[in-house]
Amino acid sequence: MHYHLIGICGTAMASLAGMLQSQGHRVTGSDQNVYPPMSTQLAALGIEILNGYRPENADIGADVTVVGNAISRGNPELEEVLNRKYLYRSQAEIVKEEFIRGRHSLVVAGTHGKTTTTSLAAWICEVGGLDPSFLVGGIVQNFDASFRVTSGRHFVIEGDEYDTAYFDKKPKFMHYLPEIAIVGNIEFDHADIYRDLQEIKFQFSRLMNLVPGNGRLIAGIDSPVVREVLDEMDGKLFTNVESFGLSDDAKWQARYIDFTGDVTRFTVFRDGTSWGEFETHLIGEFNVRNCLSVIIAADTWGISKEKIQQALDTFKSVKRRMEVRGVERGVTVIDDFAHHPTAVEETLKALRMKYSRNRLIAVFEPRTWSSRLAVFQEPYAKAFAYADYVIIAGVYNTAKASELGKVLDVDELVADIQLQGKTAMSFPDADSIVEHLTPEFREGDVVAIMSNGGFGGIHDKVLDVLKYH
Q1: Cβ neighbours of residue 394 closer than 8 Å, sequence gap 6 or more
Q2: Of 398, 416, 432, 468, which residue has the fewest beta carbons closer than 10 angstroms?
Q3: What is the pLDDT of residues 119-140, one digit of tens each?
């Protein structure tokens, strides 16, 4: 088959391109923003990319056109495909039919922690001998890839709650046929497509309702909203529910958590009885929960405790998840994807635990749709409580964000953080932030840079200025 992907440089689309090619299909694509890292990944695979969206791209002769979820009506190439009545599908549909159907599927969902949890699950399945295929929204460092297709019978996938395509407004995770579903937490997010928390709860309830009777729903009840959804679905779920968390009433609990050493140690209890002791190089309570959810899934698929611990020992995490990008002149520069207020707070809390004696500098760029809007104005003011020094960048593409509603007031946010007795300020972009920080750095500083985008290459700029100035 010849698949042509409109919007091929998106993370999920580029991964799908590689997956399809690995199965022997011919793959081409188009995009108007052809840039690394996905452009280099696609080039390495030898996949032809047409630069720009033009009607004549439809002449390429594809059997199936895959329409990325960033592509909307009015796109010249899409309009030509529709006019010619060509066969088109979404990324999630193709993943379901080409790669998941007929396999044992583990879908990892939730507002936070999906990428790390999915990556850990894939690695535990690998160490456990299941030879899994996987698709993750980030680069899994153990595999140095965001996807893999094998002949094994297990598929591990990150279940995104964002909508599927312009013609399919269901979340992507509704396509992934979960035998096991992990729902780690639920909060309001994606203000560009969901009006309120109730809409998000409804979508997660639909995912829970997909899990078959011989499957498992692994639900994180430390999240109040997950509890609410479970309570509302009481008697309406036709699968096995495995609750987990640090809460006393969870079926699976992590107890005796010890963050004091080089590793995080914890004991897993099941139904009130000690089940096993584990340790991980990951830090923070949220990562203990992530580990616990995957331990439950691994046990469901028959992976031994010894293999689980072996995988935890050797897991290298995910790029851009509390990733140390470098240390220069005693200053540690960390890159993190955190953008939701809860994720920002949990990231800084974990770093505060790990670097308890260091000055923690938080640099944050409001870049996602939700973070650019005023919907989280108040929660962000509380999210930086664990930092000593806070810098907020200007809102990314303010003009575009304002089309959806009131934009985050950065000056107000800075003032609210200052009221907590912290040093806080705002600068418009990466260059002005680096210029300000250069004389401020001192040995022992830990700089946590949080953005879900490139942020003007700020990580390398900070490391360069430390190294050469």
Answers
A1: 410, 426, 427, 428, 429
A2: 468
A3: 999 999 999 999 999 999 888 9
**Alpha-carbon gap, residue 224 to 188, rounded angstroms:** 12
Report phi then psi at 2, rounded to 5.
-110, 115
* Residue 387's CATH number: 3.90.190.20
171 shares its domain with 145: yes
Backbone angle region of 322, left / alpha / beta, with phi > 0 → left and psi within -120 to 50 → alpha: left
pLDDT in tens, 327-378: 999 999 999 988 889 999 999 999 998 899 999 999 999 988 778 888 889 9
Determine the pLDDT at residue 94: 98
Q: Give residues with Cβ within 8 angstroms of 444, minimum separation 6.
A: 330, 331, 357, 358, 359
Q: State pLDDT tens for residues 46-83.
A: 999 999 999 999 999 999 999 999 999 999 999 999 99
What single-letter amino acid sits at 136? V
Tokens at residue 451, please? Answer: 């953005």
Nearest to 145 by CA among 119, 120, 125, 124: 119
Number of domains in the chain: 3
Q: What are the structure tokens assigned to 242, written together?
A: 């495995």
- The verdict on 266 and 122 lying in the same domain is yes
What CATH number is attached to the domain comprising 308?
3.40.1190.10
Range of the structural domain that residue 260 is part of? 102-314
Distance in Å from the first CA to the final CA of the chain: 54
80-112: per-residue pLDDT in tens?
A: 999 999 999 999 999 999 999 999 999 999 998
